[in-house]
Amino acid sequence: MKWTKNLSNLVLAVDAVTLIAGLPANLLAFYVFIHKVKQQATPIYVLLLSLTISDLIFLFFLPLRMKEAADMNWTMSYSLCPLSGFIFYATIYNSTLLLMAISVERYLRVAFPIKYRLKQHPRYAMIACVIFWVVSMVHCSPVYIIQYYNSNDTISDPANKECYYAFTQKQLMIILSVRFELFVVLFFIPFIICSFCYIKFILILSRLPSIKASEALQGHLACHSHPPGFYHLLHAVQCVPC
User: Nearest 5°: CA angle at 202, between 199 and 203?
Assistant: First the structure.
């Protein structure tokens, strides 16, 4: 990707708003959910705490991306390039999986209230969180490895001023396949599950006169329609040959 002044300003503006609004909100959420888990560890609080931690890690590494956008090239240590890319993508996909788990938890809570209360245990949520972290990191490991793949290529040159964009043809074929797999496994399938759970969730709640189903549905589906959702769609488009 070739940086331009307009693109640099756009990325800086979006990332700055994300950092300024997201960091204090997530720090507050982290404080609240830590206390909730200590007082009464329930599956939903465990999932929300893990989601908050994932978002905080993403936000802590976001300034590296902002500096790259401001400089319009990669001027930091090259070893930070694959690391920041790995953390950036792994936390996005981990958050997507956690949003899916939260939607499933909410659906089970209202669809099968008695069975759910009898069988719910925070241990299951903790296991799910660990699995999500492992799955997202394993699937995103090519993001880290690909930049050192074939050390004779220029992508491994410390003097290189582009991060995660200057690929050889061989690397590009691998990364496009990985991107499409990430889109299907870590976005599209969770989106379908999330949509199903929230639609059923809203249909159940819509029987109550005080609930406006359409408004609630729009709000819940927005969880997967946030900016990372458009990023996932961009991944899929980039995998389609011209």
Answer: 85
Q: Is the pLDDT of residue 234 over 70?
A: no
Provide the Cα torsion 8, 144, 237, 133; round to 10°. -110
The confidence score (pLDDT) of residue 152 equals 47
SS3 for 61-85 is HHHHHHHHHHHCCCCCCCCHHHHHH
Tokens 């902002």 — which residue?
Answer: 66
pLDDT per position as a tens digit, 142-159: 877 776 655 444 444 555
Say what the pLDDT of residue 238 is: 41
Does domain 5-238 sit in CATH 1.10.8.470?
A: no
The full set of domain ranges for the chain reads 5-238
Q: Which of 228, 203, 229 is nearest to 216 (CA)?
A: 203
Q: Where does the chain have alpha helices with state H? A: 5-39, 43-71, 80-111, 113-119, 122-145, 169-183, 189-205, 213-221, 227-238
How far is residue 34's CA from residue 41's CA, in Å, rounded to a whole number?
9
DSSP 120: -
